[in-house]
Amino acid sequence: MGLRILSTGISLPKTAVSNDRLATMMNTSDQWISSRTGIKYRHIASGDENLTSLSIAAAGTAIERAAIRVSDIDMIICSTMCGDYVFPSLACCVAEALGVTCPAFDLNAACSGFIYALDIADKFISTGRSKHILIVCAEMMSRLCDWTDRSTCVLFGDGAAACVVGEGNAIKYINLTSDGHTHLLYQQVGSGNSPFRPQKEPGFLVMAGQDVFKFAVSKVGQQTELALQALNLTPDDIDLYILHQANKRIIDSARARLEQPEEKFPTNIDRYGNTSSVTIPLLLDELLEAGSIKKGTKLLLSAFGAGMTTGTCVMIWE
Ligand code: ACO
């Protein structure tokens, strides 16, 4: 016995920013951004919106839809690259706001975080240690970006997506990797207040875009093929490929390699940009709400991110 996803919920900052609006702030254009990435809009936090508030809203919807009591949750895992505090963890802030006392911790596998969280949750549920785990992916990429660097800031968005998992047997395959190349995508912290070393300000997100692109195209393809081989499946056997929404061109190249029709590779990057570990549960939520995922639907989830990490999962919806 492992897990199944009982429910999902999402929460996005209220402000949606179009490419045209960005073009009034920096030297860019809707034509450049949408043709290179597929992105049209992204949601950016403003006012008092923070990761804890977005996470609680997404979690509240997921808990309500799972029809469980808050007290039924016996673990909270948050995937984030940067919570509201260095410590305590975002997961502890969510636990406090929900009023539950259970193990709660953050994990950082960058954009692969949702699949990492699923694998950990699967292990806790399959050993009987947990019955209901709340997974929240929440990212505020707008805090990490250098808003004077047009080559990165236009790509990302903010948001949160949650799911409640419980006992089931949905996961048929899951594989996590990290294989170096840390210099391709990173953000350095500052040196802090030590009197014994020179002060250094925290940096912003740095990305070698073309190398990340090449990594993603080759690794996503390779990991997908490994998953299919392990289960003795062909690409045609998968109903929906839920890929990390980093760039529409990366998704299109994975689809071409597998020779699959466009409708099997749903996207929402046009409306949200790259929200890191949030992209896959955000897309899952939309597909569930639209009725596109039903009992028996065969899904392949695939993510890549800083590290460089990957996560690949095949599940049959229960
Ligand atoms: N608007 C207009 N022009 C721009 C912009 C912009 N926003 N950004 C860059 N340019 C210019 C560059 O200055 C360059 O100009 P030049 O030719 O005069 O020097 C030109 O556009 C081409 O720049 P490239 O970097 O070569 O553009 P490329 O076609 O490689 O596209 C992109 C860049 C979209 C970043 C692409 O490399 C990419 O998508 N990489 C993968 C990114 C990714 O997946 N990131 C997520 C990783 S994991 C995670 O999710 C955290």
Give your account of this protein's structure.
The protein is of the alpha/beta class. It folds into two domains: 2-169, Thiolase/Chalcone synthase (Peroxisomal Thiolase, Chain A, domain 1); 174-316, Thiolase/Chalcone synthase (Peroxisomal Thiolase, Chain A, domain 1, 3-Layer(aba) Sandwich). The protein has eleven helices and 13 strands. It has helices spanning 19-23, 30-37, 51-66, 90-98, 113-126, 141-144, 150-153, 209-230, 248-258, 269-272, 279-289, and strands spanning 2-11, 16-18, 41-43, 75-79, 104-107, 133-140, 158-168, 171-178, 185-186, 206-207, 240-243, 298-305, 309-316. A five-stranded mixed sheet has the order 1-7-6-4-5, with helices on both faces. Strands 8-13-12-11 form a four-stranded mixed sheet, with helices on both faces. Strands 2-3 form a two-stranded antiparallel sheet. Strand 12 and strand 13 form a beta hairpin. Helix 3 (51-66) packs across helix 4 and helix 8 packs parallel to helix 9 (248-258). The longest helix has 22 residues, at 209-230. The radius of gyration is 19 Å and the shape is globular. The two termini are 13 Å apart. The structure holds acetyl coenzyme *A (ACO). Acetyl coenzyme *A is lined by residues 28, 32-33, 36-37, 110-111, 150-151, 154, 185, 207, 209-210, 212-213, 216, 246-247, 250, 274, 276, 305-306.
